[in-house]
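Annotated sample (chain length 151).
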Amino acid sequence: MLTLHKNIAVITLGACICLSSCYSNESKNESEPIKHLQGTYQLIDLEAQEASVYKPMKGVGILKIFTKGQWISPAYLVNNKKVINLAGGTYTFSHNELTETLNYHSKDTINIGLATKYKVILKGDTMYQSGVFKPGTPEEWKVEERWIKID
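Output written by the structure step:
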């Protein structure tokens, strides 16, 4: 059990270091703060590519953490909390439009630098995110996700 807690602590520390090292002190537009998405969200369910019904992922948990224009998203096995994927980068949020730029990824390095726009609807602590990753390409991927804010 102690090893599990150490692994979670190391992953959390690594994510914080990545986010703080990526954050730029450049001035931001103070008239339109991006704080609406700040916090940690947990993926509750998503629509499969050929479906129209939201379903939870079996055995995998995914978090998405937004802070000061940066985002990071670890995916982990629920049974042992082992991280199996990690992605992150910068984001902007305005008028229900989220633009995520992929700045690092543990597996999919070919898409580093790719910016993707999503429609976001916030209802209480629930965030609905929808759009298309890599639109207009053979690799396009439908994104229909429901997240809940956990902090």
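Annotation: The two ends are 24 Å apart (CA to CA).
Annotation: The domain at 2-22+37-149 is CATH 2.40.128.280 (Lipocalin).
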